[in-house]
Amino acid sequence: MTVARITEISASSTESFEDAVRVGIERASKTLKNITGAWVKDQEVGIADGKVTDFRVKLKITFVLE
User: Are 14 and 55 in contact (CB under 8 A)?
Assistant: First the structure.
């Protein structure tokens, strides 16, 4: 029997939404073991002086408990 847990994290990047997802997964992998998937719950951008400054994502990370 497998039991999984889902946790929500947020991550940002100055490059793109895709990079923000990558940053979030890489960071989560440092403390969460057995990550099996993730989905983007929300996306938003930071804006200053009328220009996009960063890309932000909220991710739901699924990992199998040992």
Answer: yes
